[in-house]
Amino acid sequence: MTEPAPSQDGLKRGLKARHMQMIAIGGSIGTGLFVASGGTISEAGPGGALVAYALIGMMVLLLMQSLGEMSARLPVAGSFQTYATVFVNRHFGFAIGWNYWFNWAITVAAELVAAGIVMSYWLPDVPGWIWAAIFLVLLTGLNAMSAKAFGEGEYWLAAIKVITVIVFLVCGFAMIFGIIGGTSPGFGNWTEGDAPFVGGWLSIVSVFMIAGFSFQGTELVGVAAGEAENPQRDVPKAIKTIFWRIMLFYIGAIFVIGMLIPYLDPSLLSSEASDIATSPFTLVFERAGIAFAAALMNAVILSAILSAGNSGLYASARMLYSMAKDGKAPKIFGRLNKRGVPVPAMLLTASVGLFGFLTAIIGQGEAYTWLLNVSGLSGFIAWVGIAVSHYQFRKAYVASGQDLADLPYKAPLFPLGPILAFVILLVVIAGQNYQAVIDGNLLQMASSYVGLPIFLLLWLGHWLATRKQPAEAIDPWTAKLN
C-alpha cells in the first residue's frame, strides 16, 4: 500500500474524496437535528423553527464558502487559526486557535456524557461514567491509528446518519400525503393554537442558538483539508454540497416534524438533556408503524454522538498541533508519530474528555447541559474568525497581484457573504440567552456567555505577552504555513 504523501506541516494526506464528502455531511448532522429539533418547534412553532433554521443555514452556507476559498488555496491543519494569524493578526489567531481547541475538547466531554445517557436506554443499571470511559478509549484508539482511520470511521458513522435522515424524509412525506400512517394531517398543525409562528421574532432569535449549535462541525472540512489527498479538488466539491444538504436534511426534517406533530405536543418537550434518547424522529417513525422505532433511533443517536466525539478529538488535536508548530502552544504538542498523528495533542484533548466522569458526581443531565452551554458560544466565535479572516484573505490576495481566476474555489458572494455572516453571528451571540439578561439571572448569563470573556482574555493576554516582540513577516502564498 502506498504511504500517504506528507502535507506542508508534516501531517500525512490520507483522507480520500469520499472521506471529505462524509466529513462535510456528517459535521452538520447530529443530536441538534435528531433531538433538539423537537424543542425548537415547541418553542417557536413550526414556521418559526423553519425560519430560524433557514436563516442559520444560509449563514453557514456563506461561512463555508468563505472557508472553502481559503482552505482550497491554503490547505493546512491549522485552518482558520492559521488564516486568522496571517491575515488578521497573531493575537487574534492565538485566541481563535485556543478558543476552537477548547470548544471541541469540551464537546468531546459533552458527547461522552450524552453517550452514557443513551446507553442507559438499554442498560439502565450501568453507571454512565463507565460508558464514557469505554467510548473515550475507543475514539482515542481510532484517532491514534492514522488520519485515514479517522476518515474511515467518520465515513461509516456519517453514512448511518445520512441514511436515517433519508428514510425519515421518505416516511414523513408518505405520511403527509396519507400513503402510510393513517389519515394525512394536512396543514392542520400549522394553524393550531398560535402556530405557525409562536412567540414572534423573539422566539425565532432564541432558536438561533440551538440551530447554530446544530450546524457546528460543518467547518471540520477546513481542518481536514490539511490531510486531504487532493484538497484543491475535494474541498470545493465538499463545500458545494453544503447548500443542498442543509435544504434537504434540516429544512426537510423540520418541515416534516412540524407537519406531523403539533407544537403543543408535550412529547416535543422531552428533548432535554435528561431525556436525550427521546427524539421527534422516534415519534414520527412510531406513528408510521415502524417496529422498534425507539431502539432504532437510540442506536442512530448513539452513532451521531460517537461521530461528534470522533470529529471533535480529531479537530482539536490538529488545531493544538498547528498552534504548537506556530509557537502558540508548548512544543511537545507539535510532535507526530510515524503514522503522522499528533499523539501528545490528541492525548491532552482526550484528557479533557475525563470531564465526562462528572456524570458520576452531579448527574448525567446536569453535566451534559453545563458542558453544552460552555462549548456552544466558542463555536460561534470560531465562525466569526472565519468571516473576518476571509475578508482579509481576499484583500491580501488581490493586493499581492494574483488573479482571482486562479483560485481553486471562489466564494461567489464576496464581500457580501462574510459581512452578512458576521452580522448574523453578532445577533446570535448577543441574543442566545436574552431571557436571562431580561430576568437578571446572573448564573444563567454566566453559563451562556462565559465563552466571550474567555476569548477576549486570550486575545488581550497574548497581546500583553508578545506586544514587544516583532511580528514575523510571512508571505502566505509561498511560505510553508503550520
Q: How is this structure best described in words?
A:
With 482 residues, the protein is mainly alpha-helical. Helix content is 67%, strand content 0%. The protein contains 20 helices and no strands. It has helices at residues 17-26, 31-34, 37-73, 79-87, 90-119, 128-145, 147-176, 200-215, 220-224, 231-240, 242-260, 280-287, 293-325, 343-352, 359-362, 364-399, 416-431, 434-439, 442-449, 451-466.
Layout of secondary structure:
Elements: H1 17-26, H2 31-34, H3 37-73, H4 79-87, H5 90-119, H6 128-145, H7 147-176, H8 200-215, H9 220-224, H10 231-240, H11 242-260, H12 280-287, H13 293-325, H14 343-352, H15 359-362, H16 364-399, H17 416-431, H18 434-439, H19 442-449, H20 451-466
Helix pairs in contact: 1-7, 1-10, 3-8, 3-10, 3-11, 3-16, 3-17, 4-5, 4-16, 5-6, 5-13, 5-16, 5-20, 6-7, 6-13, 6-14, 7-11, 7-13, 8-17, 12-13, 13-14, 16-17
Roughly what fraction of the amino acids lie in strands? under 5%
Alpha plus pi helix count:
20
- Output the CATH topology: Amino acid/polyamine transporter I
Helix content: 55-70%
Q: How far do the termini sit from each other? A: 27 Å
Number of separate structural domains: 1
Structural class: mainly alpha
Low-confidence stretches: 1-6
Given this structure, which CATH class is correct?
Mainly Alpha
Characterize the overall form. globular
Transmembrane segments: 22-41, 47-64, 100-123, 129-146, 158-180, 200-221, 242-264, 290-315, 341-362, 368-391, 412-430, 442-460
Domain Amino acid permease/ SLC12A: 19-472
Protein name: Amino acid permease
InterPro entries: AA-permease/SLC12A_dom, Amino_acid_permease_CS, APC_YAT
